[in-house]
């Protein structure tokens, strides 16, 4: 269809109907709307909206007639925002022309491979919202069933990194990342504090929780402001050497969030996508050096040492092609890190480590030191083999704590994390030694209790691998803000069985 | 999660909000609904609704607060129908438990294969509405990227045929089917009339248009009633030997329509799914013998003779495992059949052939005779090699016409198809010989003109392959009911270019 044809289509005025649909733009036209008939539009048609130079692809539903005047089209929140967040007197509605890059996705489904140009066009269309969820799912599944090879993964990474904003720094910056899947693994604030205290530049942007009970941004938000614009991030990093900000406002690799949303619905995390996801964000953020934490355990994202080594090798190789020196560390992913799960509770663990409190969780401290050591060495703050000693020194002499506090002040001030209103201890129904902790069930418990939307919700673990437990001993304490959420978590604890497995 | 956990969840009352979403059940809760918070439900969560013993899986949106009281949940039309089409004072809402069969889909994505039990469970969950569109897309893409082998295709066919209603007949029945993709290929009414006139039993159920401008059910509906229940179908077939009914009301292989909806969004038609789609419907309809028309052409569904032969071989082999004798005929799919596209216009072609009118389209007549001959021979009405002669005789002596009319009377009465209000001739902008006709563009033109929703809309072709055309000669006449639709089709005709290609 050429422009002339696209210029046909009907004119309506927009109405924001306050429909929250997550990411997907949805528009609603009245069931008796003559435009649907004349345009040949039916429920679930993909339509193109044009107003004042903006274009939005959306899914059409019909109905909600009570909400709409005959000449109005209702916009979901996502559609409203993509059209500029204002009312439009005139919006042009027509069939969405077929997305051309879906042709190469179809080719990939039927056995072809995707080149750099193909992937650049696909990612561009994805970011522009031209792919429906069904099409996104097909793209991701095709690249999993016949896995993306190294060339495709490289090209996908480049396309994703190139499709959003990019940060440039006048100095060398280093970054760290965990591939995730491990509740409580909140090493980032400690690593950033140590690295900045050692004189490195570490502009860390983190995500909020996607499927987990807490992301680093959620945890940091319990003590400071994390929703920073680019200028503020620059100022904080120039003054303090590091920041701990939410990356979501920056549009670094915006395709990533879209792909992740679909992967979550499928409950898959294919390796090629994982590599492109991590590296595209870091490349767009301007990192030249990168320390990667890969937790390995039966209920972590990476299940075996062999899989961890393979992932590390591919990740390092592809990073190198972008001029990024990546160093991967495989870590113990058999149980949650620290003693807590949930934004505020995890932050309390972090503060305990930074403050050198006597009951600070040793495993969190050790993991953070190991990662910080790698950051210091890769960043050139110390020679090889000297990282651990220097990291320990900066933590133990209070330098890291002071740097953490001044980063928080630069971001908008420091406050202590809040404690939840309601607590309930869950006890062991038998005796034995703790043989396994199910990361996924622990995460679900914290989510049922309200994390991350209630920042103080979550749970505190009292038993760890190898501990001896007697019947009636506390296994964990649930923290919640409302009785309904507490009961929901207790219900799940009673029915889901063994989040913590004891030997007989 | 066990039952106890599922029994938690909140109670609301239902409100039908008249939202048309095609197939997908959607529910809307107020943005300030405390239930969302306490249940941890967010926009796009998959939820389970339970009321009076019925269960519906649905996608949650939030908003439309003006439509809903605080204790109400809004139901889309699909959700409303699945909950029995009545208001419920108490509906229980909870998270949809993970669909267990998605585990085997994930296994298939990561390189496994699917056994009979896996596919039976997947199809059962699909029919129960437990799969989101994203999950359906992953299932279909996985079975295309690494194509379903014969065992999987067999098992998928069995699962789909077993998941809905089944028809049993006290006598041997025969069926015919076209794999489609060719506008105007409306042979079915003629074949059924001839076969029934020859004494065979041919209980033909057809679909409405999915992506095409007309399905056989749409065309038949312009002359008689096609929305028949099972009892009426039995009576019609017992009295007349054949019927020409809409299959949609019968729940024969209901998974098929769901899969087709997703394939349409992806614009793919993978072979394994195609075989399972066709055979599962026919097996569920009780057919023991089946004649299959496979049109081959560059813009038809099957693009090459080799692909056609492969498909015929697989189709025949898998049909045989269900005790179905299938006979495949490859036919010319290079241009539309007959002279018309659109429900009423195609029916006029059919009637012209049945009535032996002098200007009846010869190609439609010839194709129908070829297929009828195969049906007569496979059904045992005549010996091998005698089908064509007998079919021609039954058509030429008026037996087929009389049988067609009596089938229509048995279904509820015969009426002549209506002519559209508006016509517009589109002429050639140059001179030459017709070298190619683009089936897809012709189909789109008819759809823009209003087909199939306006049964009289569509187009009549005046030029066919090999015809000499001079500048200004008519190429086709558009038929439409409204000026807007006519203009829309004219716009498309002007911009989409060569639906009909002339030699220079």
UniProtKB/TrEMBL annotation, chains A, B:
<dbReference type="InterPro" id="IPR035902">
    <property type="entry name" value="Nuc_phospho_transferase"/>
</dbReference>
<dbReference type="InterPro" id="IPR013466">
    <property type="entry name" value="Thymidine/AMP_Pase"/>
</dbReference>
<keyword id="KW-0328">Glycosyltransferase</keyword>
<dbReference type="InterPro" id="IPR000053">
    <property type="entry name" value="Thymidine/pyrmidine_PPase"/>
</dbReference>
<dbReference type="InterPro" id="IPR036566">
    <property type="entry name" value="PYNP-like_C_sf"/>
</dbReference>
<comment type="similarity">
    <text>Belongs to the thymidine/pyrimidine-nucleoside phosphorylase family. Type 2 subfamily.</text>
</comment>
<dbReference type="InterPro" id="IPR017459">
    <property type="entry name" value="Glycosyl_Trfase_fam3_N_dom"/>
</dbReference>
<protein>
    <recommendedName>
        <fullName>Putative thymidine phosphorylase</fullName>
        <ecNumber>2.4.2.4</ecNumber>
    </recommendedName>
</protein>
<dbReference type="Pfam" id="PF00591">
    <property type="entry name" value="Glycos_transf_3"/>
</dbReference>
<dbReference type="InterPro" id="IPR028579">
    <property type="entry name" value="Thym_Pase_Put"/>
</dbReference>
<dbReference type="InterPro" id="IPR017872">
    <property type="entry name" value="Pyrmidine_PPase_CS"/>
</dbReference>
<dbReference type="Pfam" id="PF07831">
    <property type="entry name" value="PYNP_C"/>
</dbReference>
<dbReference type="InterPro" id="IPR013102">
    <property type="entry name" value="PYNP_C"/>
</dbReference>
<keyword id="KW-0808">Transferase</keyword>
<feature type="domain" description="Pyrimidine nucleoside phosphorylase C-terminal">
    <location>
        <begin position="433"/>
        <end position="500"/>
    </location>
</feature>
<dbReference type="InterPro" id="IPR036320">
    <property type="entry name" value="Glycosyl_Trfase_fam3_N_dom_sf"/>
</dbReference>
<dbReference type="Pfam" id="PF02885">
    <property type="entry name" value="Glycos_trans_3N"/>
</dbReference>
<dbReference type="InterPro" id="IPR000312">
    <property type="entry name" value="Glycosyl_Trfase_fam3"/>
</dbReference>
């Amino acid at each position: 269809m050429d422009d002339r044809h696209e210029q046909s289509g009907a004119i309506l005025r927009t109405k924001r109907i306050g429909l929250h649909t997550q990411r997907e733009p949805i528009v609603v036209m009245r069931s008796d709307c003559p435009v649907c008939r004349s345009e040949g539009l039916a429920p679930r048609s993909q339509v193109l909206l044009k107003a004042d130079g903006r274009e939005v692809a959306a899914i059409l539903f019909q109905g909600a007639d009570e909400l709409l005047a005959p000449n109005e089209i209702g916009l979901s929140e996502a559609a409203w925002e993509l059209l500029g967040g204002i009312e439009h007197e005139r919006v042009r509605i027509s069939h969405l022309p077929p997305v051309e890059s879906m042709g190469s996705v179809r080719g990939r489904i039927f056995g072809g491979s995707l080149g750099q140009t193909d992937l650049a066009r696909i990612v561009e269309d994805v970011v522009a919202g031209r792919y429906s969820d069904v099409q996104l799912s097909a793209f991701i599944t095709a690249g999993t069933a016949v896995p993306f090879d190294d060339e495709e993964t490289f090209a996908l990474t480049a396309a994703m990194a190139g499709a959003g904003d990019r940060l440039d720094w006048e100095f060398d910056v280093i970054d760290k990342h965990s591939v995730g899947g491990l509740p409580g693994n909140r090493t980032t604030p400690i690593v950033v504090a140590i690295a900045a205290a050692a004189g490195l530049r570490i502009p860390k942007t983190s995500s909020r929780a996607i499927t987990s009970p807490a992301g680093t941004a959620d945890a940091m938000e319990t003590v400071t402001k994390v929703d920073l614009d680019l200028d503020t991030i620059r100022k904080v990093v120039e003054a303090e050497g590091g920041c701990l900000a939410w990356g979501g406002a920056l549009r670094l690799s915006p395709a990533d969030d879209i792909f992740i949303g679909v992967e979550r619905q499928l409950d898959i995390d294919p390796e090629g996508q994982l590599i492109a996801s991590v590296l595209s964000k870091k490349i767009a953020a301007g990192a030249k050096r990168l320390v990667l934490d890969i937790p390995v355990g039966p209920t972590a994202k990476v299940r075996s040492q062999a899989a961890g080594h393979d992932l590390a090798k591919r990740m390092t190789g592809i990073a190198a092609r972008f001029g990024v020196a990546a160093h991967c560390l495989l870590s113990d992913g058999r149980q949650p890190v620290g003693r807590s799960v949930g934004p505020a509770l995890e932050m309390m663990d972090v503060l305990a480590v930074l403050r050198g409190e006597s009951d600070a969780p040793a495993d969190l401290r050790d993991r953070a030191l190991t990662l910080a050591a790698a950051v210091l060495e890769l960043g050139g703050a110390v020679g090889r083999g000297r990282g651990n000693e220097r990291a320990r020194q900066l933590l133990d002499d209070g330098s890291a704590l002071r740097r953490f506090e001044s980063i928080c002040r630069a971001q908008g001030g420091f406050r202590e994390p809040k404690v939840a209103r309601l607590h309930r201890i869950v006890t062991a129904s038998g005796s034995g030694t703790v043989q396994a902790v199910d990361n996924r069930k622990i995460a679900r418990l914290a989510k049922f209790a309200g994390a991350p939307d209630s920042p103080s919700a979550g749970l505190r673990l009292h038993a760890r691998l190898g501990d001896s437990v007697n019947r009636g001993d506390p296994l964990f304490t649930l923290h919640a803000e409302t009785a309904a959420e507490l009961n929901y978590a207790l219900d799940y604890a009673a029915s889901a069985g063994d989040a913590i497995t004891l030997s007989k």
